[in-house]
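Two records follow; treat each independently.
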Amino acid sequence: MIYINTIEDYFKWKETHNPVFLESKKGQVEVACLNTVLIKRELIKPNSWNPNFVPKHKMEELEDSILISGFCFPSVVYFDEDFQMFVISDGAHRYKMGGDDWLKFEYAPCVIREYDENQRMIATVQFNKARGVHEVDKDADIIVALINQGMDEAEIADRFKIDLETVMRYKSLTGIKDMFKNQVYSNSWSVIQREE
């Protein structure tokens, strides 16, 4: 097992990391869970955009599950150069479960991914939706953030598997008129000159 106690430990691990892949009919798929590491909890922080909420009784169920079945699902993190910390893309509640209020772990089981700025948010939404626990009301905030980072509406629709009209509706929900200032609109009607 790999223990990451410092940022230097992470960089050493990164140099020797050998990902494992499975072949699929759509190409290679990395089996990231085979590269789970234990990261010192002080080196990890939750992201600021997760639209998922877990009530206290569900956290208690999560605690029971971990105590009975073990810690089966690592958190997914990426290393943020600006913060010099690992930021959680998926598994914030599993990470929280290891905190002082719950099980008080010294380390968090994690899979480290390399995400660009857009993919960080997209990964969080995809993980949540795949489990069916995503709060749709907060999609608009994420979509606006991705557009502000320069992502195209069509690409957002493709990545989230929603139609372009839904992306535009989410934009309008934010109340930010600037989101529409560069939008190209078609005319509602056209003028035809008729001779009499």
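The next record belongs to a different protein.
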Amino acid sequence: MISGSFLKKPLFGLIIYRMGMAEKLTETYKHKGLRKNLVALLKEKGISDENVLHAIGTIPRHYFLDDIFLEFAYSDKAFRIGAGQTISQPYTVAYQTEVLNVKKGDLILEIGTGSGYQTSILACMGAKIISIERIGSLHEKAKIMLKDLGYKAQLILGDGSKGYAAKQPYDKIIVTAGAPSIPDVLLKQLKIGGIMVIPVGDEKQQTMISIMRTSESAFEKIVLDEFKFVPLLGDNAW
């Protein structure tokens, strides 16, 4: 069952998480300096979209990590966020976002909210976001995080492999988990001229694919680089 609202009964674990945010939600010159270094590294790796780099340099990635990983928050690595999921390495986030060609005001469907970091990057760039997450604990934490950061997004608990037809068509769709194939249902939710970026492959490695809808029945596909994501789960995935 899909739901866009908080659970009626608060979870004890979420209360602990919320109380523990006070120390984590601090911003120092050190954090800003580390983000500046991260942006420089991403430039060296080929990221050139200034809007993407600005968002990476703005969003405090250390907010999204467990305390054990805070020291490494601005290294270009993925980290576990619980429930068998990860926060993608900054290069992967920047790469997908650059390929998506985000414009201010774009209506973007994000499949896989996860920690909410990618969601925040898109929001920082001025997009209107609908983001779907299938794991309740991550969905709830992301809602808290986005609110505390002051970014707006419609977060939905449900099966992202089905998309979200209620708000279609979308300017852009971004899938942040590895799919065995490109779900037709997501293609149908793109507007003409819209772009979807999705990693496709097996459960160990995927190839990033960019797809543009050119007409009601035609799509142009560009095959890009190889990455490793957690599997996309759902009726139209694994």
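Discussion point: The longest strand covers residues 190-201. How would you locate this feature using only the token line?
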